[in-house]
Amino acid sequence: MSESSRLSTSERIEIVKWYAMYQNAGEIARQFQQCYDRTPPTRKNILNLVRKFDETGSVEDESRSGSPRSVSTDENKERVRAAFEESPGTSLRRASLDLNLSKSSLQRMMKKLGLKPYHPQLLHALSDDDLDRRCEFADIFLKLVAEDSSFPDQIVWTDEATFKLNGYVNRHNCVYYATENPHIIITQEINAPGIIVWARIWSGGLIGPFFFRDTVTGRSYLEMLDEEIVPDFEYQMNLGEIFYMHDGAPAHYHESV
């Protein structure tokens, strides 16, 4: 008799749940010994049990005779549809556990139901008047270009890219299942702690990058302008003829700047 056959149904279910949480057979063995106060199953048996669940949707031993019974019934399809309609961000493994279906069976039914994975779009949050301000800016810009075709050459465009040290949203692992694209959008704060890389571009090319090791403040931004940016500008162009463009980050509009 194999070791896994000596496990009760409730013990097998707990092992599968632990694997969904820890993804580590060694940790599952420790959890088992702590919970049941007896020798845990081997790593091989733990992985075999999890694989059995993924393939069959059950932790019970397979019957030795008879044809396998299909789980792709109308009832199960409706359960799958309702589950993802209620919680579209549920992972396949979690849904497999909750619905007591194997991962492969679940995926087949999801395909028949037209459920596809969609990744959220990551955007900066916009204020209510941003759209009107952008349209106004575009109108002014086009008017200035019409009056002087060399006007774009006088503009220095600047921006920062923030490499966050925490709070990063991994869109690859964040999936929503639906029959149509739900257009999920995740907003994030612009001025989050992290390493910030600043650069500028103009008709003469790209200039930079410059680095901020901490969150950009009015003082640190002004120091960069005085020590790095302005001297570099003076070397390449006439300061009296340029338009310096930066966004609405608080540091850019600090009273010291």
In short:
The protein is an alpha/beta fold.
Describe the structure in your own words:
It is a single chain. This protein has 257 residues and is α/β, with parallel strands linked by helices. Among the domains are: 1-56; 123-166 and 189-253, 2-Layer Sandwich (Nucleotidyltransferase, domain 5). Helix content is 42%, strand content 17%. It contains eight helices and eight strands; from the N terminus they run ααααααββαβββββαβ. The protein has helices at residues 9-22, 25-36, 43-56, 74-86, 92-99, 103-113, 130-147, 218-236; strands spanning 116-118, 121-124, 155-164, 176-178, 185-188, 194-202, 205-212, 243-245. The strands form three sheets. The protein has a four-stranded mixed beta sheet with strand order 7-6-3-8, covered by helices on one side. Strands 1-4 form a two-stranded antiparallel ribbon. β6 (194-202) and β7 (205-212) form a beta hairpin. α1 (9-22) crosses α2 (25-36), α1 (9-22) packs across α3 (43-56) and α4 packs across α6 (103-113). The longest helix has 19 residues, at 218-236. The mean pLDDT is 78.
